[in-house]
């Protein structure tokens, strides 16, 4: 059993490593979504209940509904906030995000949009729902004096193509009146993300030499101290690079720098221990 596991790990190690590096590269070099900002989000939270109430009053017997991504919503925050509110209030049996939508979110890609009723109706037919919620954000921005929201909301019947509900919500609130709520959620989200990244780095450090154990055994067969030192340097550099890609953005100050150096040093010692183990396998 252990031999089979060893063979699988050694053969899949290279593919897994390439996949991890590709994902880290995309995460650090790929597209990012802009931040909506606290004033815009606070205004949105004030206006969303009115939007949802309008949909509730117009729904009739319709329950099975899909929410399509709104036009001019590069942050995704308007669409996501509307989805969360509808789901919490239960006014519709809202279709879950499709696999393609989740993939767009995972890769930070722009979603397809369906601003007009005809395109939205066709998408609704493909999704097999009774109606679709869609629309266009004409303005959602913060000026030196005001925070603005101007959005067209549609509820379109998929079977007939009729527009059941259409209303334009236009809000213009001076910043002196708008009270920006200070939420701890972004800090908690960042803390969770940091822990996840740290765990991912530890997991990669532990598995990297195991996945590439065949390569290590090939190198230690040379019985060369220079070769062993070179391999340790490669693994140490890989661990340091992975640490920088995963958790470099959350480090700050000399204490974090010392912790970073200590973590990379521990990873180096772990790699040395695995090399000693690979050498013992060759000596048996």
Structural notes for this entry:
With 284 residues, the protein is an alpha/beta fold. It folds into two domains: 2-30 and 184-283, no CATH class; 38-174, Rossmann fold, CATH 3.40.50.10610. It has helices at 2-29, 38-58, 77-89, 99-106, 117-127, 185-211, 213-220, 225-247, 254-283; strands spanning 64-67, 93-94, 131-142, 146-157, 163-174. A five-stranded mixed β-sheet has the order 2-1-3-4-5, with helices on both faces. Helix 6 (185-211) packs parallel to helix 9 (254-283). Mean pLDDT is 82; it is low at 180-192.
Question: What is the CATH superfamily label of the largest domain?
Answer: ABC-type transport auxiliary lipoprotein component
Largest sheet: 5 strands, mixed
Number of helices: 9
What is the subunit arrangement here?
single chain
| Overall pLDDT score | 82
Distance between the termini: 20 Å
Order of strands, main sheet, comes to: 2-1-3-4-5
Give the class from helix and strand content and strand pairing.
alpha/beta
Q: Tell me the domain tally.
A: 2
CATH level 1 class label of the largest domain: Alpha Beta
From the spread of the alpha carbons, the general shape counts as: elongated
Uncertain segments: 180-192
- Helix fraction, binned, reads 55-70%
Q: How much of the polypeptide forms β-strand, as a percent range?
A: 5-15%
Please trace the helix and strand order, writing H or E for each element: HHEHEHHEEEHHHH
């Amino acid at each position: 059993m252990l031999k089979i596991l060893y063979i699988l790990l050694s053969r899949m190690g290279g593919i897994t490593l390439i996949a991890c590096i590709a994902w880290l590269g995309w995460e650090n070099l790929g597209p990012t979504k802009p931040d909506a900002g606290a004033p815009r989000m606070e205004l949105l939270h004030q206006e969303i209940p009115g939007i949802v109430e309008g949909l509730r009053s117009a729904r009739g017997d319709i329950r099975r509904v899909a929410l399509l991504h709104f036009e001019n919503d590069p942050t995704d925050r308007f669409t996501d906030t509307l989805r969360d509110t509808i789901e919490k209030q239960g006014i519709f049996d809202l279709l879950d995000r499709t696999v393609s939508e989740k993939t767009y979110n995972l890769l930070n890609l722009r979603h397809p949009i369906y601003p007009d009723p005809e395109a939205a109706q066709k998408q609704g037919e493909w999704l097999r729902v009774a109606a679709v919620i869609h629309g266009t954000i004409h303005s959602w921005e913060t000026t030196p004096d005001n925070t603005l929201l101007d959005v067209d909301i549609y509820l379109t019947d998929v079977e007939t193509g009729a527009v059941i509900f259409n209303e334009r919500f236009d809000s213009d609130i001076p910043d002196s009146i708008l009270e920006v709520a200070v939420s701890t959620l972004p800090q908690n989200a960042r803390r969770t993300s940091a822990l996840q990244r740290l765990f991912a780095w530890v997991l990669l450090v532990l598995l990297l030499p195991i996945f590439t154990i065949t390569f290590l055994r090939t190198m230690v067969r040379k019985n060369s101290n220079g070769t062993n030192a070179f391999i340790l340097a490669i693994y140490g550099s890989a661990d340091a690079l992975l640490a920088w890609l995963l958790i470099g953005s959350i480090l700050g100050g000399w204490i974090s720098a010392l912790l970073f150096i200590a973590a990379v040093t521990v990873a180096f010692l772990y790699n040395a221990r695995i090399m000693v183990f690979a050498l013992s396998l060759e000596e048996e």
